[in-house]
Amino acid sequence: MDAVFANLALGFQTALTATNVLWVFIGGFLGTIMGMLPGLGPATGVAILIPITYGMNPTTALITMCAVYYGAMFGGSRASIMINTPGDASAIVSCFDGYPMTKNGQAGSALAISAIASFIGGTIGMILLVFLTGPIASYAFKFGPVEMFSLLMFALTATVTLSEGSILKGFIAVAIGFMISTIGIDPQTGINRFTLGVEPLQDGVDFLVVMIGLYAVCEVFKNIKDVNVQHKIDSKTIGKVWVSWPDFKKCLMPMLRNSPLGFFIGVLPGMGGTIATFMSYAMEKSLSKTPERFGKGAIEGLAAPEAANNSCSCGAMVPLLTLGIPGSGTTAVMLGALMLLGVRPGPILFAQYPEIAWGVIASLIVGNIALLVINLPLAIPLVQLLRIPQRIMLPLILGMGFMGAYFLNYSAFDFVLVTVFALGGYMFSKLGIPIPPLVLALILGSSTEQYFRNAMTIANSDLAIFIEKPISAVLLSMAAISFCYALYKRRKVAAE
Length: 496
Hints:
The chain is mainly alpha-helical. Helices cover 74% and strands 1% of the residues. A two-stranded antiparallel ribbon has the order 1-2. Strand 1 and strand 2 form a beta hairpin. The longest helix is centred in the first third of the chain and has 34 residues. It is globular, with a radius of gyration of 22 Å.
């Protein structure tokens, strides 16, 4: 326990420097805006704003990206509450009772309880994050190449099987992600792989170029049909952005019991905020003595998923920081950006650079407070941004995306790659092929290949080593169980 508080004190020394506090506010503010704009969401917001971290030291860059991520989680429900259009998938549930509250003349209370629930969920999530990261990082030191390969295979399998949608399409996305990760000259054999004779591809495909194409530019393509849409916001009908004591008492227990639920869902690869919010809403409705109020403006129906969503984002940081494995699409984008900065999250980060690891954790606590300050008094000015027409917003996103890709390598060829991946992402969305498994496989592809090669070297190419090592055998068994369970669940649903 003393070690935890000592590390946290070290983290606050890093997080509370003037530069880092400034970027927490800037990142949180920009993330809130990105999160509240319909169709964008946290992953796209982080991808678009990655260029602002160019030139920063790794600690400040990671703190800024976390602030953007967290801000997007705070802001995601604004559009759900005001215009019944979720900023991202995890904010869909906020439409169920948030928008009816607006129609009932309670928009101010809805915006206030959304920010307060996000703060409480984030605070509980961070307490769990502080006390769990140390033990998990220490245990991770027992992992060699065999265990790490099995862990990555479990993470990839769980991402496909625990998420919604077709399992086959999920594994197709993983295969494509692996293929993209192998483009270029193999550093061990010198063989060209998937370069198609194109010289610039010999150095491989930059991860951020793929992200900007798949998320930022692709979102522009998907929203182009709504280019003339302009939402109307009447700020006079919002009223005072605050929540009464009786309403707060109604929401207190739902927030307290759904925050741990969201956190542990966030820890699991592939689950994410969407599943956390739907599960918390279903649980609150089943526990309520008046379930008929849900969907008609029940304030606890808005508070519970908001708390679970922000707590889930803390949970997603656990595998990212301790094992170097992203727990969500947004943390996958963050991991790729960090690897370009020369930072590899994982147990070594806690041992060799504790000021970075604990500085980021402490910055999340600072950011949670900063975002409450931003989102309560500035709630009414912020929702005015929903009035910005898409014909102005979409070109801005497009310009930021291409500018960020160019400044990465100063290569005009990256424009081609961004366009290709944006078109690919658009095609995948039409075919129902999920993007997060592709992103995860792309990021983890080279590590998975290297761990497999090291394991084969240790075992003289004997595959039995993966079931002879106890930890590896458990992880592969968990991957097999998650696959079988997903098949059973989908067949059961199909039969019904």
